[in-house]
Amino acid sequence: MTRYSSDDYARPDANVHFGVFFQGVNHNTIWSDPASASQIDFETFRRVALTAERGLFDAFFLGEGLRLREQQGKILDLDIAGRPDAITQLAALAGITSKIGLVATQNSTYNEPADLARRLSGLDLLSGGRAGWNVVTTDNAWTGENFRRGGFLDHALRYQRAGEFIDTARAIWDGWSDDAIADADSARWSREGAINHVSQSSSQFDISLRPTLPRSRQGHPVLFQAGDSSQGRDFGANYADVIFSAHGSDFDDALAFATDMRSRLRAAGRAAGELRILPGSEVVLAEKESEVEDKLRWVREGQYSGATALSLVEQVWGRDLSHLDPDGPLPTDDPVAAPISVTRGAARDGKDPHAIAAQWRALAEAKNLSIRQLAIETSARSGWIGTPAQVAERLIHFVRSGAIDGLNISPYIVPGGLDDIVDLLIPELQEREAYRTRYTGSTLREHLELPPVRSRHHSVGADAEAG
Ligand SMILES: Cc1cc2nc3c(=O)[nH]c(=O)nc-3n(C[C@H](O)[C@H](O)[C@H](O)COP(=O)(O)O)c2cc1C
Asked: What is the CB neighbour count within 10 angstroms for residue 338?
């Protein structure tokens, strides 16, 4: 086992934080195994959320896809179908859980702040201060077609709108003073002057309203952010409490990302303790070291069916290859040269198909791999793989070195994919005093060990005294 030295950790007492990212739409969840359940039944969500709460996770996290992805005019076959609206789904989970945070991915490009801020407030109040909002801008034009707004807003303007959206949402969330509701014996239900008028005007929004809801136990929903461009990172440094990053399992990459975010945070006038970084990650555990390879092979074989492997190759080659045998070789001719972003799927976006094809051909030739074996090989080592003790040691090393604050774990199978993490990995972390042994707070903000947020109108009484 690799031994990590703890002599010069930047954060020798830091705890590991976990969220669970229930993906819904992806090609990493095993769907053909008998242990795999529906992606949309409430029972599946219930089991995953309760297991995560048993494991003292900070949050249950849902992504959002407003439109099915497509490839050459057909629904993208890599995606496991089904993704109910996140706020609706989390409201149902709020009723059967008591501690775990509930995070909804919601789009700032196609929503309106007066509506979305109110719905997120509703979730935050119903759950006793456990709501989070993962703010996404969505980088493609075809989602805009849902709203007859294909191509709406340049990339840069999307982040401008997202910033104005959050400024507006915060003004709405802060509309009520903390002591807005009057005493029971008062003649009025609200305190005079405690429900403020919100008037916000910016390039994207022009609102004038009185908010309908008070602040929650944690003030307002915790803000997550998941974009990775330079603008996305600046936006995260200015507004987010948590970054859902794509820089998880390689130590140097994760540390470089965290260092970059901390310098952007400083530039935004914020302290390092105001931001958490939770990369989206997969965890594959086997109880004994001798079983790790077999377990990993089982997971990858389940994830990469012949159809999935062919679909991945079609994304790079840019055309229908369904006639090929997934257990045979890669196509011998070159990919379609069309710009990759034309494909309405994620894998080709922004990448050079010829470079990927050349890389894959070289690998397939060197190791004599079929299409399916190649798909398995190219994803084989990403993630957190090992015995519970090995993964625990490595995680503590990452967290205490300041590279990450924990993981947003995507289970490779639902509903049972968190069981071994909760039963085997968490005890190893607790034994090393790097994971909570009970919830000490009740809000998501408290679970994340983030400083409280004060309202701009925190109390009418205090204002009167100060004034
Ligand atoms: C780890 C990660 C997860 C994301 N999850 C979602 C999602 O569930 N729904 C969505 O619409 N966009 C999602 N996005 C897309 C981002 O919100 C953003 O729109 C996109 O990455 C473009 O911004 P960028 O150019 O700054 O990366 C995700 C991005 C990352 C890096």
From this structure: 12
Model confidence, pTM? 0.93
User: Distance, CA 259 to ligand 1 centroid (Å)?
Assistant: 21
* Ligand 1: centre distance to CA 63 (Å): 9
Between CA 154 and CA 360 the distance in angstroms is 33
**DSSP assigned state of 269:** T
Pocket of ligand 1 (CB under 6 A): 63-65, 105, 107, 136-139, 226-229, 231-232, 244, 246, 280
- Encode 164-191 in three state secondary structure: HHHHHHHHHHCCECCCCECCCCCCCCEC
pLDDT score of 305 more than 50: yes
Distance CA 337, CA 242 (A): 38
Q: Which pLDDT score is estimated for 318?
A: 83
Tokens representing residue 209 in the block: 């309203």
Query: Can you list the domains of the chain with their CATH numbers?
Result: 15-289+382-447 (3.20.20.30), 305-379 (no CATH)
Atom 19 of ligand 1, residue of closest alpha carbon:
138
Among all chains, which residue has been given the structure tokens 């894998």?
347
C-alpha closest to that of 347 among 23, 8, 26, 21: 26
Q: Provide the sign of the torsion angle of the four alpha carbons 21, 25, 28, 34, taken in this order.
A: positive
Q: Quote the pLDDT of residue 339.
A: 54
Looking at residue 460, its pLDDT comes to: 65
Sequence letter at residue 435: Y
Q: Tell me the CA–centroid distance for residue 45 and ligand 1, in Å.
A: 22
Which residue has a Cα nearest atom 17 of ligand 1?
136
